[in-house]
Amino acid sequence: MEAGRSPNIEIITLAELKELSGKPGNFRAKLHIRPRYVDPLKCTSCGMCTTYCPKEVVDEYNERLTFTKAARIDYAQAVPTIYYLDEKECLRLQHESCQLCANVCGPNAIVFDQQPEERELEVGAVVLALGFGRVPEEVLEKYGYGKYPDVLTSLELERLTCASGPTEGEVIRPSDFTHPRRIAFLQCVGSRDVTCGNGYCSSVCCMYAMKEASVVKEHLPEAEIDLFFMDIRTQGKGFDEAFNRAVEKYGFRTIYARVPRVDQVGRRLALTYVTEDGKTHRDFYDMVVLSVGLDAPQDAEVLAERLGIELNHYGFAKTKVSTPLETNVPGVFVAGAFQGPKDIPESVVQAQAVAARCSELLAEVRGQDAIHKEFPPEDEELERLEPRIGVFVCHCGVNIAGVVNVKEVARYASTLPGVVYTEDVLYSCSQDTLNELVKKIKENRLNRVVIAACSPRTHEPLFQETLREAGLNPALIEMANIRDQCAWVHAEDPEAATQKAKDQVRMAVAKAARLMPLELQRVSVTPSALVIGGGAAGLQAALSIANQGFEVYLVEKEEELGGNLRRVTGLLSGERPQKILEDLIKQVESHPKVKIYKGTTVENISGYVGNFTSTLRREEGSEVINHGVVILATGGKEHRPVLFGLGENERVLTQLDLEGELEKKGGRLSRAKSIVMIQCVGSRGEDLKYCSKLCCQQAVKNALRIKKKYPKKDIYILFRDMRTYGFSEDAYREARKAGIIFIRYQVDRKPELVKRGKSLGVKIYDALLGEELFIPADLLVLSVGITPGENEEISKVIKAPLTGDGFFLEAHVKLMPVELPVEGVYVCGLAHGPKPLEETLAQARAAAAKAAIPLAKGYVEVAPIVSRVDQSKCIGCGICAALCPYGAIEMVKVGKRKKAQTITASCKGCGICASHCPVLAISMGGFTDEAILAQIEAFGAFVEREAEEKTEKEEAA
Amino acid sequence: MGFDPKILSFFCHWCCYAAADSAGVARYQYPPNNRVIRVMCTGRIDPRFIIESFYVGADGVLVGG
Amino acid sequence: MAEATKRILELVGIKLERFRIDWASAAEAPLFVKIVTDFTEAIKKLGPLGEAEGLERETLRLRLEAARELTSKSRFRAAFGNLARELKKVGDYSPEGISSRVEQKLVPLIKKELLESEVKNLLSQGPVSIEALLQKTGATQDDIVPILESLSKKGKVEKQGDVWQPKAKE
């Protein structure tokens, strides 16, 4: 929606990139655009074409579970919200035989003879966000898909559980429409499976299976659900916790087994599988859900060839750990699942990161072609007059007028106090009507406008803009929603709908009379950033912001830059981490826009987005700096639990210690014959409740490195779940092939340290053998996880909350993964949560992208819905400041008294302050007490009128 | 004659108000008795508003977050 | 907010079924429809305001008037705001936690203020007997007498035989 509204984003649908020439900063892109057969400027997305279209077609959006029409929109929230004709299915386009849609289309938006278009664009950079493809049906057929109707894919189940899906959220078996009582989820379908060519792990399925299973349980509390895993891979931030909670709440059974096939027996489905203890089981289910993986996007190869970009052996874009967004073609970037399977938060992070990458490349020409709309000055004199309200009642074709008596509503509106002009219009949002609207406002000297039409959520910005064009403050409009919340939902009762429309109009007029012009507030921004932390995340974030053209203060508390990355000596990709780090440091140190403070701590941060002031303390003294934004890249620490003799016995190491040993010649490692690694030491429920995401990869990596250096050494990895997600699954497979022995241990039977004289060993219960094994360990390597750094102190200073585990809590896990609830403060790297280097580097750029927005704009604009404190009324009790969820109210000294003051730039307009103010000193822009009370009062008139009518009737009787 | 209750609703812009719009898009049908006041967040709602609603004669008040 | 409002409604005598807070996210249109439909049905069953409560229009108006005054009064609002602040500070948002705190810190104030307003409003309409006051407010003698006494101390009302009446301004 937001992207669709931006004047600087053009969404070109139905288009294909045919050719790309030129170089970074100066590309020419040739597009082929297929016809939509609907004029986007005319379509009002009323849906009449779909209603009348006679051609039923299978609904691909709903996974072929239901039908739709040839004239349609795939789903209501689609952007652009414009209908299209399905070329292959449309009777007119195929057989010249029908034109019902054109006949019923009010605004005449249907264009049957629209032709394909070739278009050339001049662009500076190209981002490939192709997404992911589907696992081929042949793979699913192995599990009886297509043969047994009750074998579904997870995508199909997703539609079934969707309230607006084909069954309106009812989970039923396709074979007999009954509710399934026992359901099995089979994981890793089309993932971690070399037989189908997809050797990688799709990274998201364990988590989504849990989510879908939970949703099913909400619908069918009686259902018994079993989930079959190879490993439970819920490595994301907070995922383990969510998973465990769901298992406990819904009583899911989690079974470690790969089910090879599905059979139908009678009306049920039989699964035969072998569990880890070697026993064979056969169970019956009513429904089997295949958790399908994320395939490479189907059209990737064609495009790759056209652009000359390299794909990896699975068909995803080939990238490096150090440059996860870069293809081999300069200026062509990637983001999202096309770069490798990933979930929504990771995809959003990469998307934001790639925006930073483009912004770095194009920094010099920033704003060159940006569109800024100009408006005439406001007629303040007119605005000060008594309310002169104009009411425009929209027919919306037949959408409103088909139910509500629009003329009557308009007539009624003209009788309301303050109303000086009324009109009913066919489509209020069409461009010509909007132009008319401007004219009518001027002609009739209107200073308040009520539009009775659709929802302010979708259309208020449009009308606000129209008001500005007419020289009125955009706050002087109020909408009455008589379509989405009236005509459409009361289609069966036109009389009541008309009555409701009148009431809503009356309430809107009452509010409009009390609307006041609101200044669009702008706060200027100090164009520099403070980056706290000089590890990989901080370095990358600082570099990106500097490359985008802004000053950066990079603060590192230690005397040396690099953080945890300094101790890492190898990567699965073969890249050299120290080289990556060196390059980063070199670039940062030589960048004229970065000022580095080593051995420095940040003492005090005050202010708000655009205008922060901080004190940097060094031994030699302190310095006060002003900056517009803050990036927290404070990192994490290696956890060092007192377990397995770590710190007491020199033969017990952590994986990071081992990285150091691997660089040495000789040493403990060369002498050891048998090396045992233990995963999750102190993690996932012990000292640390969470999974640290990178230890499994690190263990496999280090094991392979040992094996390469010393092929004869025995290496054992004892694990709970091997979480080598994504392409690192390849390394896991390689490690097994190389003879590294993996043994799963049970949570309730963890490995134990055994000392026999001078030698060390580990006792572990092997489920397959059913007995305890003793493994000698000349070297015991522990995967210990990551603990948060000194987040708590900063969290208090900056008023940004932490998660229960002590990492910074993002403003929204999916939509705002690097923003904190406090505006102008961003987070990346281990301060946000444990993650491998590649993800840290992407996230650092994402934070840099977000941080650069206010810096590039030079101001922060605040929607005028913010709160305002009347300081003459304020008694300084501080309740509002304490309750504000965004830290947007501060207590300031005015004279001798404390008074509340809104930090406009941080306010979100929720109104908690106003509703809790003892002396009613706070008013909310556009939602003042007076306005809301006027609406309530106007509602009351409806009650009175009904009462009068009743008495009249009684009297008449 | 059946009783037609008069209901006043306060809906949060981001949640219930949006849900109400979606209900319209999907053409769900529901009783036409409620009148809606949009607020940016249910946090805006003051006990005064609820009392006032009953005072002016609402038979029911629904707050939708 | 909800809990405090509910307690006021309860004291006014309005059935709590008439006030509902529910949640539906933007993606939950069917849930929204269910909420609105169910709520409308529930109100239909209760009948017009006052009917299920067994309250006359006039009494209801009197009490709601008092509630209106209460919710605008800074004394109530300060207590209400402070309570919200306390809840946020201790982070206890369990229904029990909220309810017990509201009971302790807010309800006595609500009761007292409501009754005071009602008594004042009744008296402002002319002389009233104690019996009538008791009947209209639904309060007990123990609750009302102190209010009357304090009002008379302030010189706002006086007792004339069996009835109380507003004191004429000199």
Describe the fold and architecture.
The complex is a heterotrimer of chains A (957), B (65) and C (170). Chain A has 957 residues and is an alpha/beta fold. Helix content of chain A is 29%, strand content 24%. Chain A has 27 helices and 45 strands. The longest helix of chain A is centred in the C-terminal third of the chain and has 28 residues, at 929-956. Chain A is globular, with a radius of gyration of 32 Å. Chain B has two helices and three strands; from the N terminus they run βαβαβ. A three-stranded parallel beta sheet of chain B has the order 2-1-3, with helices on both faces. Chain B is flat, with a radius of gyration of 13 Å. The mean pLDDT of chain B is 91. Chain C has 170 residues and is mainly α. Chain C has two domains: 2-125, no CATH class; 127-170. Chain C is built from eight helices and four strands, in the order αβαααααβααββ. Chain C is flat, with a radius of gyration of 19 Å. The chains are: A alpha/beta (957), B alpha/beta (65), C mainly alpha (170). Chains in contact: A-B, A-C, B-C. Chains A and B meet through α14, α15, α16, α26 and α27 of A and α1, β2 and α2 of B.
Element layout with pairings:
The complex is a heterotrimer of chains A (957), B (65) and C (170).
Chain A: H1 2-5, E1 15-23, E2 26-33, H2 48-52, E3 56-58, E4 67-69, E5 71-72, E6 84-85, H3 91-95, H4 100-104, E7 117-123, E8 126-128, H5 137-141, E9 151-153, H6 154-160, E10 182-189, H7 205-219, E11 224-229, H8 239-250, E12 253-256, E13 262-265, E14 268-274, E15 280-285, E16 287-292, H9 300-307, E17 332-334, H10 344-361, H11 380-384, E18 389-394, H12 406-414, E19 419-425, H13 431-443, E20 448-453, H14 456-469, E21 477-481, H15 483-487, H16 494-513, E22 521-524, E23 528-532, H17 536-547, E24 551-555, H18 577-590, E25 594-597, E26 601-608, E27 611-618, E28 621-627, E29 629-632, E30 636-638, E31 652-654, H19 655-663, H20 667-671, E32 674-678, H21 695-709, E33 714-719, H22 729-737, E34 741-744, E35 752-756, E36 759-766, E37 771-776, E38 779-782, E39 786-788, H23 791-798, E40 825-827, H24 837-857, E41 859-862, E42 867-869, H25 879-883, E43 889-894, E44 897-902, H26 912-915, E45 922-924, H27 929-956
Parallel strand pairs in A: 8-17, 9-16, 10-11, 10-16, 11-12, 18-19, 18-20, 20-21, 23-24, 23-29, 24-25, 29-40, 31-38, 32-33, 32-38, 33-34
Antiparallel strand pairs in A: 1-2, 2-7, 3-4, 5-6, 13-14, 14-15, 22-41, 26-27, 27-28, 30-39, 35-36, 36-37, 42-45, 43-44
Helix pairs in contact in A: 7-8, 10-17, 10-24, 12-16, 13-14, 16-27, 17-18, 17-24, 19-21, 21-22
Chain B: E1 7-12, H1 16-25, E2 34-39, H2 47-55, E3 60-64
Parallel strand pairs in B: 1-2, 1-3
Chain C: H1 2-12, E1 19-22, H2 29-46, H3 57-72, H4 74-90, H5 95-105, H6 107-124, E2 128-129, H7 130-137, H8 141-153, E3 157-160, E4 163-166
Helix pairs in contact in C: 1-6, 3-6, 6-8
